[in-house]
Amino acid sequence: MNFPEPTNILPHKDPFLFLSEITDLVPGESAEALWTIKGTENFFEGHFPGRPTLPGVLMCESIAQLGAYVVLQDNRFSDKLPLFGGLENARFRQQVIPGDTLRLRVEVLRLSARGGKAYGEAFLKDKLACSAELMFIAVEK
Questions:
Q1: Where are the domains of the chain?
Q2: DSSP strand E in the chain: where?
Q3: Which residues pair with 115 in a beta bridge?
Q4: Which of 11, 27, 34, 92 has CA atoms 20 to 30 A from the CA of 119?
């Protein structure tokens, strides 16, 4: 099944869009996506020279972007902009390097007109690389 491109839904654009492909979607409820880390991303220049490693907070950002994608596919939020409101219980379990592809999964736990909460995970192959609870607020566009 084909889903709308993240660039057509999210306000994020290159170089700060961390979703390569949406692979599953239940609007307002859940989604899965892939993020292929190419190695040409500018953050690798300083993190770390000679041993490029994806910053863990960017895994959290990719999960948050997928959460925003889920919310923006819900018609109740078509005139809203979801903003990152908080992060709880973030855990990083795998080193991610150029050439890796992360499989992302998000499930919305709570959703209201003012915001919500979601749980997300990033997998490297079949191993959990990152997990976190994410909060967002919804503001007018």
A1: 6-140
A2: 21-26, 30-36, 80-92, 101-112, 115-124, 127-140
A3: 112, 137
A4: 11
- DSSP structure string for 113-139: TTEEEEEEEEEETTEEEEEEEEEEEEE
The answer to whether the beta carbons of residues 90 and 131 sit under 8 Å apart is yes
Q: What is the pTM of this model?
A: 0.96
pLDDT in tens, 91-107: 999 999 999 999 999 99
Q: Does residue 47 have an active-site annotation?
A: yes
Q: What whole-number distance in Å separates Cα of residue 102 and Cα of residue 100?
A: 7
- Token pair listed for 127: 């191993």
Catalytic residue among 12, 47, 103, 117: 47
